[in-house]
Amino acid sequence: MSTLHFGSALLPSGWADDVQVVVADGTITKVTAGTAPGADDERHQLAIPGIASLHSHAFQRGMAGLAETRGNTADTFWTWRETMYRFALEMTPEDTEAVATLLYVEMLEQGYTRVGEFHYLHHDHDGTPYANPAEMATRIARAAEVTGIGLTLLPSFYAHGSFGGAAPHAGQRRFICSIDQFAKLIAATEVAVRELPGANVGIAPHSLRAVTPDELTAIIPLAEGRPVHIHAAEQIREVEECIAWSGRRPVEWLLEHAPVDRRWCLIHATHTTATEIAALARSGAVAGLCPITEASLGDGIFPTREFLDAGGRFGVGTDSNVLVGVADELRQLEYGQRLKHRERNVLSGGPGISTGRALFDAAMAGGARALAQPIVGLQPGARADIVTLDTTHPSLGGRSRDTVLDGWIFAAGSGAVACVWAGGNKVVEGGHHRLRQKARDAFNSTVRRLIA
């Protein structure tokens, strides 16, 4: 058991002063506000809950920055994808573990304490399943275990190259599963995370491009009430091809033909109509927004204000992991809306409300729903995921409560996260994860070889 004391802390009920938090077996057991620190309490100035990156492709951290040279044709998501395929085809299980380990170190250093790993790099280089169908998933679980980050592992079902059951691309061979193979993969993944505290498993039909309606119907029962994540409407071309195939837009098709509810997370949903936005909000599903990746890939801007006005929920994800940071995603989300609407503080929700606080609260709640975490935040029963901010940082100095969040998200850049507890274990201190150098060394050795 350990006891922490914070001069100020963001609780579910709002900010409170002189907060004592008791942690046992990785869980918060008691929270008391307005109390003086005990003699043995570990003391810090300001604490907030850790939040989730609800959508990550860990292996792509290794190729960050490698697709920034323009080719001879228009450079789009579709040309970026070819670079991604080439990189994915080279990776061994050991490479995947090394890359994921550094990524999770970086996530924790930036304030993420859980990751939703949308995992589709399954098989050996030639597409042959490993003897353990969850060999690659096991490597992801190991990376989560050694770094301490909470894990929701979402094995992806990927069977086709485009709508209507088109044959897969050669570069996709490491992703492809039959329904039977996917069922075995899910079972093996459950074994892989069985001893990992707080870990859970969902399923991720990759997209309507990669899954036929019959296959979607067949695999949904494998979720058994757990999270279901799917890419949808990320690109205009995807929308156009979906209409040509079905007469419906991707989100429209899903809402009409799939059992979309609060268990579901639609990743991106960038190109949606007002009718789709209203229906998606009513469904209870979470919009999984990845603003940095969506900007990097030229996807477009999700109609976030309209979705929130309709009662929708969102969380944020790091997706391609080209840049990792809670503040970075939330800032990019708001700035995209500012550019779209040519206004400021678009997502604050109303006059007098801190935009940083509104973004943080919404992303924490949406990420928790998308990853099936019923209790989050600084309250009894929640996993002890706690982040302290450095109130001496130039962008945080002299600020308190919501203005600290505003300073962190919109002004601090980097270096504002001081300490992080994940599942009750202090894994980041002074802004550095305990495995930072070891993880960097292994990552650098791996990536140098892959690039060569």
From TrEMBL:
Keyword rRNA-binding: no
Amidohydrolase-related domain residues: 47-427
UniProt keywords, alphabetically: Hydrolase, Metal-binding, Zinc
GO molecular function, one term: formimidoylglutamate deiminase activity
The protein's required cofactors: Zn(2+)
Official protein name in the record: Formimidoylglutamate deiminase
Highest taxon, organism lineage: Bacteria
Protein EC: 3.5.3.13
UniProt-listed InterPro entries: Amidohydro-rel, HutF, HutF-like_N, Metal-dep_hydrolase_composite, Metal_Hydrolase, Metallo-dep_hydrolases
Record-annotated Formimidoylglutamate deiminase N-terminal domain positions: 1-45
Keyword Zinc among record annotations: yes
